[in-house]
Write a structure and sequence with these properties.
The structure is a homodimer of 130-residue chains. Chain A contains 7 helices and 2 strands. The first copy, chain A, is mainly alpha-helical. In chain A, helix 1 packs antiparallel against helix 4. Chain A is elongated and about 75 Å long.
């Protein structure tokens, strides 16, 4: 399974690394040089350059033309495609969370009123009349 | 740069392949066996099994316990993390699209009314009176 080169796959692959995601988060505050981007990470300049190349190939960043200074800037357009792809699955994770939530509520209701499992159909009224 | 193993990185890496995304799309319709999942793709059963292992490791799918039949089903919870991570960048791609949109409108306005660049302030009325 060699890496896929369609644009959405390139974007997802570029995002599959915490350092690259941290670089994008930094660039969200404004353009930065390789030196500025390297500072917060415990990795070499060449390692940062490698990460930048992956981000650039996925068009998540653009770099200036100046040979010496080449500032990087965020290009968020590919993230729109990620958001749109992911959005199609929203109802699946929401359904799952809703079911989990209902289940937890059932468990809680049972533990708060032990022996009152069947009280839905006016069982509660009958019992208080006793 | 060895692959990162934090859960968001695992999710992004699993999504960086069109076949794996197609498998998730199929599973959104309901559980399926490996044989059913292999059918639409021009790849071998073992290749599909490899893809399923990547998806399973990222907790994007779960597999049944039956040794023979082991149906796969979608687990969308990790996609919620993807959506939340991506959402933080929404204003960046929207800003960019808005700027592009304004620029295109300016270009269009110029090409539709050559020589009438300054007509914003009741310039139109003046023209129809001519």
């Amino acid at each position: 399974m060699s890496p896929s080169t369609d644009s959405l796959s390139l974007t997802f692959a570029a995002l599959a690394d915490p350092t690259r995601r941290a670089i994008l988060a930094r660039l969200a505050d404004g353009p930065a040089t390789v030196k500025e981007l390297s500072a917060p990470f415990d990795i070499s300049g060449p390692a940062v350059t490698k990460h930048l190349r992956v981000l650039e190939r996925a068009r998540l960043i653009a770099r200036g033309r100046e040979a010496q200074w080449r500032p990087c800037q965020l290009e968020a357009a590919p993230l729109k495609d990620v958001a749109e792809w992911t959005e199609r699955y929203r109802r699946y994770w929401e359904d799952r969370l809703n079911r989990l939530d209902e289940y937890l509520k059932t468990l809680q209701a049972r533990s708060e009123r032990p022996g009152h499992h069947e009280e839905k159909h006016d069982g509660h009224r009958r019992r208080t009349k006793k």
